[in-house]
Design brief:
This protein is an all-alpha fold. It has a domain of about 55 residues. The protein is built from two helices and no strands. α1 runs antiparallel to α2. It is elongated.
Length: about 80
């Protein structure tokens, strides 16, 4: 049997697109969390613990952005 129904109708070319979109959603969620952390520290009278927590959140966000960028580039790289 040939055609799309032979393998259950799945298109293997869509998997990289779904993965890329998943990384984009994850980075968007992390961006919102980091912005909320910054907003909380800025509005809540910056305590030492609050500033440290916000800095850690921002560092984790930057790390996630770097990982996501590399992973998305690896998906689009030829070969």
């Amino acid at each position: 049997m040939s055609g799309p129904s032979a393998d259950g109708g799945r298109d293997p070319g869509l998997q990289p697109e779904r993965t890329r979109l998943s990384w984009r959603r994850t980075t968007l969620s992390a961006t919102v969390a980091a912005l909320l952390a910054v907003r909380t520290v800025a509005r809540g009278g910056a305590s030492t613990a609050g500033v440290v927590a916000c800095a850690l959140c921002c560092l984790c966000w930057l790390g996630l952005l770097g990982v996501a960028h590399r992973r998305i580039r690896a998906l689009t790289a030829p070969g």
